[in-house]
Specification:
Elements: H1 21-31, H2 35-52, H3 61-64, H4 73-82, E1 95-97, H5 98-104, H6 109-121, E2 125-129, E3 132-135, H7 141-154, H8 157-167, E4 192-193, H9 212-225, E5 230-232, H10 233-243, H11 251-270, E6 274-281, E7 284-291, H12 318-321, E8 323-324, H13 336-353, H14 374-387, E9 414-417, E10 429-432, H15 443-446, H16 459-463, H17 480-499, H18 512-521
Antiparallel strand pairs: 1-3, 2-3, 4-8, 5-7, 6-7, 9-10
Helix pairs in contact: 1-2, 4-11, 5-6, 6-9, 6-11, 7-9, 8-10, 9-11, 10-11
The protein binds a DNA duplex through helix 6, helix 11 and helix 17.
DNA sequence: AAATCCCGCCAAATG
DNA sequence: CATTTGGCGGGATTT
């Protein structure tokens, strides 16, 4: 009956660090200095405010300051993450109760599910029981990423992306070049598992597990195999759709996909694994995301996988590293020892990698993009500074600056702020591909031409689109529940305008600054 | 107008 | 049948 329905009050304090509305602020303030930080503070102030309101009433007062941003999944996720350490103690069981979280963050359950799903896709949490999840933090993140990268390679995503990038909106990768690669498993890949963790009781792959969780993993895979670690939504959507059973390249489908991608991107962003950027090309800029998470991860878990040196493309079979759960059988492999091992290694790595930009070497990882691009590095450093950051810690001792920060870009291409206005294109920010033409591998970047401002629209799909917009339900759009909301929203937005100047899309955008500046001085 | 993406209905999956 | 999960897309907000 109710062994786990009701969260026991015991844990209440969430173990080590109970979040306090001010703790975060203190940190921020202490670190503050440039105006950018001010903005951060401002933002957190708002957060605190929202947080403070206790009673569920006061639509006018409490809600006044809220805007869409305040309810964004990203922010929510950040708040969620704040209450757990990046590297939890193995001994402790940080278990998460959805109800608690939902109420503590004062959001509907639904939202929590979204977050949990992508976190789960990274194995940062795992469902332990009905209403419960277990927190793992970044303990296995490295491994997960390694596995995902591999899976992505096996999937031939890299090639796909290239195709789309220069070939423009093409349909499926029918081309089937003489790619002797021959990825035998052309098949859709399901949830990628880690040997040690996850996949406990609950249905990790209860057959309909075709979305968020999986989509999230795929999305990450894209980043991990993309030469310049940048992925635009269009491309991602394109690829992810193609994957899903056959075609059905509806425009609607695309739209929906993109929506989801945004959702995922938002939590990925709060995890500081990616950042929003813009790829600029002749046609104009295109929103995209750039991987800013760890670049090199150890590939421990595979046990015997270890002796396999080819880091760049461990051609090894997926059995070793990634485990694709397909059918009904919930085959889980648990190796507590592995987890432990991994953890210790991870720790070590963390320390080591905290040294400023360690050029490609170490694991001899992807050597294919091993080019000395001082410029890029330099810019990267600037970006980092700008970036600074403020999460992770929040009071604890063990926190440590967190690992992903530094490694950011041994060779990751970056955005170079361009002072002089370019002709026409109005590109104030250019995407500087690390390999501008020298390497053969650079072909991916050579021309970023893609779809036109028309965007989503694709010639082929146009023809038979209308087919059936499948607006199954949803059409009833009754006004009853909505009306109130609408009014409320209206109120909110109104007050928003008066209370808040433009600057906002910032915090994590390294580029926001330059873009705003320049755009104001010279609009494209 | 386009890019974002919140909200929450309601269908599956589970209990 | 009650709940828990979580697709999915309308449409509000932002840019």
């Amino acid at each position: 009956m109710g062994p786990l329905t009701t969260p026991e009050k015991g844990v209440e304090g969430h173990c080590v660090d109970p979040w306090t509305p001010t703790s975060n602020l203190k940190i921020l303030i202490s670190a503050a200095s440039p105006d950018i930080r001010n903005r951060e503070i401002e933002r957190s102030l708002e957060e605190a405010e929202v947080y403070c309101r206790e009673d569920a009433e006061e639509p006018e007062e409490a809600e006044r300051m809220t805007s869409r941003k305040d309810k964004s999944l990203g922010l929510l996720c950040r708040k969620f993450l704040e209450r757990f350490p990046n590297f939890p103690d193995k001994d402790k069981d940080y278990d998460i109760c959805l109800d608690d979280v939902a109420s503590e963050l004062s959001v509907e359950r639904r939202r929590i599910y979204d977050i949990m799903n992508v976190l789960e896709s990274l194995h940062m949490v795992s469902r332990s029981a009905k209403n419960r999840y277990m927190w793992h933090g970044r303990t296995n993140l490295s491994q997960t990423l390694c596995v995902l990268q591999k899976a992505g390679q096996e999937q031939g995503y890299s090639r796909r992306m290239q195709q789309l990038r220069l070939g423009g909106p093409h349909q499926q990768p029918e081309e089937e070049e003489e790619e002797n690669q021959q990825p035998q498993q052309n098949r859709e890949l399901c949830f990628v598992e880690l040997p040690g963790v996850e996949c406990k009781l609950a249905s990790v792959n209860s057959r309909k597990d075709k979305s968020l969780r999986v989509m999230s993993q795929k999305f990450v895979m894209l980043f991990l195999v993309a030469c310049p670690r940048v992925v635009s939504l269009d491309i991602a959507a394109q690829i992810l759709i193609g994957e899903d059973h056959g075609e059905a390249q509806d425009k609607n489908k695309f739209k929906t996909k993109v929506r989801r991608l945004y959702d995922i991107a938002n939590v990925l962003r709060s995890l500081k694994l990616i950042e929003k950027v813009h790829v600029t090309e002749e046609r104009g800029r295109k929103p995209a995301f750039q991987w800013v998470g760890p670049e090199k991860f150890q590939q421990v878990q595979g046990v015997e996988e270890t002796r396999n040196t080819t880091a760049a493309s461990c051609g090894s079979s997926k059995e070793n590293c990634s485990k694709k759960l397909f059918s009904d059988k919930r085959s889980f492999t648990r190796h507590p020892s592995l987890i432990k091992l991994a953890r210790s290694i991870q720790e070590d790595r963390r320390r080591v990698s905290s040294a400023p930009s360690s050029p490609a070497k170490a694991t001899a990882g992807d050597s294919l993009m091993d080019f000395p691009n001082k410029m890029a590095e330099l810019a990267a450093i600037c970006k980092l500074q700008l970036d600074h950051e403020s999460s992770g810690s929040k009071g604890s001792e063990t926190s440590r600056p967190s690992l992903p920060r530094t490694p950011v870009t041994p060779l990751t291409p970056v955005l170079l702020p361009r002072q002089q206005q370019d002709s026409g294109g109005g590109a104030y920010v250019v995407y500087a591909p690390p390999c501008v033409r020298p390497q053969p591998t650079s072909l991916a970047v050579r021309s970023m031409t893609f779809d036109s401002p028309t965007g989503v629209k694709r010639p082929g799909a146009e023809g038979q689109t209308e087919a059936s917009p499948r607006k199954r339900r949803r059409e009833c759009k009754d006004a009853s529940p909505k009306l109130g909301e609408i009014l409320q929203n209206r109120l909110k937005s109104r007050s928003l305008y008066s209370s808040r100047p433009p600057l906002r899309a910032l915090h994590l955008d390294p580029e926001f600054q330059s873009s705003t500046n320049l755009s104001s001085r010279h609009s494209p």
